[in-house]
Amino acid sequence: IDVTDYQKILNQIQQELSGTKVTGRVASYVPELAKVPADKFGMHLYNLEGESFCFGDSDECFSIQSISKVFSLALAMKMIGNTLWKRVGVEPSGAKFNSLSLLEDNFGIPRNPFINAGALVVADVLVSYFSDPKAAFLTFLHELTGNDTITYNETVAASEKSEGYRNFAMANYLKSFGNMKNDVEDVLDFYFHQCSITMSCRELPQAFIVFANQGQLLGSDRQFLTGQQVKRINALMLTCGFYDEAGEFSFEVGLPGKSGVGGGIVAVHPGHYAVAVWSPPLNPKGNSERGMASLERLTTLTGYSIF
Ligand code: GLN
What we know:
Substrate binds at residues 66, 116, 160, 167, 191, 243, 261. This protein is an alpha+beta fold. The chain has twelve helices and seven strands. The protein has helices at 6-17, 68-80, 101-105, 116-129, 133-145, 154-162, 165-176, 184-196, 203-212, 227-240, 246-252, 289-302; strands at residues 42-47, 52-56, 62-63, 198-199, 257-259, 264-269, 273-278.
């Protein structure tokens, strides 16, 4: 295979993996997510030359869930800079995305911004900073992608709120340590909305290409994030983007990336491309089973990862 022939490689991934059995289950703790058909499968790669390669259900929007934590982190870093690190750490957790157990030992400082506890602290920062954080978050995404159709799915946000006992517990727990400044209700309302954003495999790499392009928007000379911010976000995606499977993802795929319980995964090859894959069944660690396999095939068939 010609390493630059991404379309051929994507076709091969589709052929190899669309027929295989998956043992994982579609996320069901958010009732709305349980309704998504398990056999959806799509992938889209967008390179720095502005070329697109795709297959399957790559234009269908799905719930980005925890992938949104990369956007909220980027916005918080842009707004308050390095003071953010006083309230959230940068170490892998080795624990599940919704773990409460590490907070006690760390005096309420979450291990990193991608586990739920850390994302709730980042959400709190944004709720403090903006008078209308939900509007500001969408504006940020629209500027990043040049696509102002991206928006919240109110049904998914309400569905998650209706069963969000663990996130409520976590926010209250953070508050008991003084690491949650706003009303728990307000922070969770923002957090459930950010998770409810729907995007397709085509749209996600358009947002993530900035992380492959040293912070510059593609096709413009606008420096959207600094080189240092991009370095840090990519480092966090590599070490913490897959919770207690971050090591496995680095080992098998070798790219910074971020997963969500909607079954999406986005990964970035700095200097080359951003890629998204969507397949709803999740493995026991909460990451898309077929999505992980697809990205492993991508870096194996191209012969290139960041390593
Ligand atoms: N909205 C989900 C939650 O807070 C996000 C989790 C995820 O995608 N890993 O539980």
